[in-house]
Amino acid sequence: MTNHIPVLIITLPLIAAFLQPVTGFAGFKLRNLVIITILLVLNGLLFMLVPDVALQGKTIYYTMGASDPSQFTQPGISFPVRIVLKIDSFSLFTGIIVGVVTLTTFLFSTGTVKEDKRKSYFSTLFLLFTAGLMGMSFTNDLFNFFVFLEISSISGAALVAYRTYRKHAPYAGYKYILISTIATTFFLFGVGICYAQYGSFNIQYINSVLAHSYLDKVAMLFIIVAMAMKAGSVPMHMWVPDTYAEAPASISAMLKASGMVTLCAMFRFTFSLFGPSSSGAGKINYETLGWIVIVLGVLSMFIGVTMALIQHDVRRLMAFHAVSQTGYMLLGVGVGIAVFAKGDGGAAFKAFGKMAMVGGIFHIMNNAFYKNLLFLTSGVMERRFGTRNLNGMIGLGHRDTLTTVVFMIGALAIAGIPPFNGFDSKLLIYESVYKFSPVLAIIAMFVSVMTLASFMKVFYSSFMGPRRDDLIVEGAPLTKGTKAGLIILAALIILTGLFPGIIVDGIIEPAVTALTQIR
Q1: How far is residue 113 from each of residues 18, 105, 262, measured CA to CA in Å?
Q2: Whole-model pTM above 0.85?
Q3: pLDDT value of position 470
Q4: Banded pLDDT at 9 (limits 50, 70, 90)
Q5: What is the three-class DSSP state of 231?
Q6: What's the rounded Cα separation, in Å, for the pair 395 and 462?
Q7: Are 63 and 87 in contact (CB under 8 A)?
Q8: Where does 269-313 have alpha helices with state H?
Q9: Would you state the pLDDT for residue 345?
């Protein structure tokens, strides 16, 4: 059983997805119980791998079609062509984020997505989305990454358009699938260039024979642009507010998780695919590549937060902040990339470059917790007031204590206020980036101040002020599942903020080490 954990992580949600029409006939309680059980098992399997993979630095392979799936030899162009899954500290980190987000968002959706005959479609698409994200996290094969990327894109587009009775929901779904199609086309061009030269889709094999030719650099450009587009980085971000605002709140959180997975894939391809090859042939200019990522990060931070400041639609405001927070991750990892291969024996990378990457990767996890909590609370706000317009909200703090408290926790975390988790990752980014460029660190701190101002506006507009019963549309009370999703995310924000050393030492640093192969 333990030997088959890598494949079970992907196949369990797939099997559950195709069982939904059957379990749906037995009643929605059984259907929800089956899904929650599957997601709990999924998270259990992921955390079972932490001692061996994260703490001991082991890499687990699973080769489908081999007599011994745990044994992996680089196949090159040999036949039969086999699908290889690879779980190292970095891919496990990505998988844990997906596992936690899917569990909490589905718990939330049990009380916020209307129970009717269409709910089984929602559940099926949700599980397919989960399987696609897990496959993207663990596959060691470029073509299969493309397949899983398509699975997540198609199911994600359908989930965005799920509320077809709303005027703009189908439009948002079409926009998401259009952007996803463009991104996957770019990615497929890059994969095709690699296959044409090396006759394999296996990431490790391609890296081992990589010549770093002009064509390789073109392929890298195609792949990085595709991943940045899916992550919602400026200047490829304009689909984000339209899509996130129209999707159900739980799906906005899932879309954010999808963006984090593609961002992790972008970093993974930079090092594991196009990084230094064992053949020693050629090299890429990491400093130039790093500055490209840094510029994308700074633009995303600044443009995202300035656009958020002027929003009156709470869901669009949250979406622009998602763009802004992506900038912090790009900035931290971009600094690490820029100093990765400097001709000083790696001194700059060890002095501050690796810490910048630790801060950027840590921020991915923290952002997955607090940003998704904010998306979910915005869904509760919309449900309570019957509108997304901040001008039509006031005094919710008098009626909904839980939502008020968890929103405050998420807002303080995204602004980088201690003792919440956003402070810890941002502090790592500030300190390390300052050693690289003080100007970049000052910009990052200024963006945090603007973020705090933006969320003060939301808090005072929605939660403060007199009690206005005429503006409140009560609807159904929050279910236990919805409350559990909110509370779990809030607890994770507090715990990772109070004990950052445990997370950094146990998960984040091993992930960065697995990514860069530098201890």
Answers
A1: 20, 11, 26
A2: yes
A3: 61
A4: very high
A5: helix
A6: 6
A7: no
A8: 286-309
A9: 54
Give the angle 348-353-358 at the CA atoms, nearest 5°: 155
User: Is the separation of the CB atoms in 504 and 362 below 8 Å?
Assistant: yes
Residues 419, 413: Cα–Cα separation, whole Å? 8
pLDDT bucket at 129, cuts 50 / 70 / 90: very high
Task: Give the pair of three-digit tokens for residue 26.
Answer: 């037995």
Residue that has been written with the tokens 């500055």 in this structure: 291
Phi and psi at residue 63, in whole multiples of 5°?
-105, 110
| C-alpha distance from residue 374 to each of 290, 448, 455 (Å) | 30, 16, 10
pLDDT of residue 257: 93
| β-strand partners of 73 | none
Q: How far apart are CA 255 and CA 302, in angstroms?
A: 21
- DSSP-derived secondary structure letter, 68: S
277-325, pLDDT tens digit by residue?
Answer: 544 444 677 888 899 999 999 999 999 999 999 999 999 999 999 999 9
Q: Which residues contact 119 (CB under 8 A, 6 or more apart)?
A: 24, 28, 31, 113
Beta bridge partners of 60: 87
In the three-class reduction of DSSP (H, G, I as helix; E, B as strand; rest coil), residue 60 is classed as: strand
Q: Tokens 């080769």 correspond to what residue?
A: 63
Provide the pLDDT for residue 76.
46
- Which of 296, 280, 289, 269 is closest to 336 using CA atoms? 289
Q: Which two tokens stand for residue 433?
A: 């980036």
CA dihedral 482, 488, 489, 494 (to 10 degrees): 140
Contact 414, 374 (CB under 8 A): yes
Residue ranges of alpha helices (H) inside 199-237 are 203-209, 214-231
Cβ–Cβ < 8 Å for 510, 89:
yes
